[in-house]
């Protein structure tokens, strides 16, 4: 019996797709900031141990791609690249959706979620910053970024904070900066 499978080709294609995905992930503003590690186990992963345990299941992401034999015959690199980018976009969308699901579960479990119900979004954001840990670089810049849905980003741009809210946020961040540097000085001395 003859086998028509091409295991070396399959291995090479899987490796190429994985490397392309890893490279394209680095171009994404959100996924590019996440350190990844290959895992060889299934089951659950512990995200939070206390005060409330949060275990999440590993999810398998699936996407289909059709590669035309004619692309190889004509060496149509552009069509092949477009198919790989479409494949990555599907994986990236699924990855980010899962990322935000897990972030929601973990922030809720450790008590770092804030309800906006019946509140001004800018006032709630100021309160949130007061309760969160912030780090600053040597130039005094913080590394904190607000990530929201594109519709929310549009709404926020159309409804900016009041000058008083901007001042309160600046004061809150300045207090966080002083606290951060005071803790760094204390750690060095001890």
Topology:
Blueprint: H1 7-27, E1 44-48, E2 54-57, H2 69-73, H3 77-109, H4 121-131, H5 150-158, H6 163-189
Antiparallel strand pairs: 1-2
Helix pairs in contact: 1-3, 4-6
Helix- and strand-based class? mainly alpha
State the end-to-end CA separation: 73 Å
Task: Estimate the global geometry from the Cα principal axes.
Answer: elongated
Instruction: Report the β-strand fraction as a percent range.
Output: under 5%
The poorly predicted ranges are none
Return the string of H and E elements: HEEHHHHH
Average pLDDT metric: 84
Number of strands: 2
User: How many domains, as an integer?
Assistant: 2
For the largest sheet, list the strands in their spatial order: 1-2
Radius of gyration: 23 Å
How many helical elements? 6
Query: Percent of residues in helical segments?
Result: 55-70%
Oligomeric state: single chain
Describe the structure.
The protein is mainly alpha-helical and 190 residues long. It folds into 2 domains: 7-109, no CATH class; 121-189, no CATH class. 56% of the residues lie in helices and 5% in strands. It contains 6 helices and 2 strands. The protein has helices at 7-27, 69-73, 77-109, 121-131, 150-158, 163-189, and strands at 44-48, 54-57. It has a two-stranded antiparallel ribbon with strand order 1-2. A hairpin with a 5-residue loop joins β1 and β2 (54-57). α1 packs across α3 and α4 (121-131) runs parallel beside α6 (163-189). The protein is elongated, with a radius of gyration of 23 Å. The chain starts with 6 loop residues before the first helix and ends with a helix. The model has no long low-confidence stretch (mean pLDDT 84).
């Amino acid at each position: 019996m003859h086998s028509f499978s091409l295991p070396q080709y399959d291995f090479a294609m899987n490796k190429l797709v994985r490397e392309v995905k890893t490279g394209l992930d680095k171009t994404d503003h959100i996924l590019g900031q996440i350190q990844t590690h290959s895992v060889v186990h299934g089951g659950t992963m512990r995200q939070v141990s206390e005060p409330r345990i949060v275990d999440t299941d590993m999810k398998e992401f699936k996407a289909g791609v059709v590669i035309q034999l004619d692309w190889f015959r004509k060496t149509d690199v552009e069509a092949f690249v477009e198919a790989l980018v479409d494949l990555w976009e599907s994986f990236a969308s699924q990855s980010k959706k899962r990322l935000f699901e897990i972030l929601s579960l973990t922030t809720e479990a450790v008590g770092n979620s804030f309800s906006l119900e019946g509140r001004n979004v800018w006032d709630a954001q100021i309160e949130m910053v007061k309760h969160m840990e912030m780090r600053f670089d040597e130039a005094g810049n913080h590394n904190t970024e607000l990530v929201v849905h594109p519709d929310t980003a549009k709404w926020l741009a159309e409804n900016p904070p009041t000058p008083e809210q901007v001042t309160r946020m600046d004061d809150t961040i300045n207090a966080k900066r002083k606290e951060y540097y005071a803790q760094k000085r204390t750690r060095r001395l001890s």
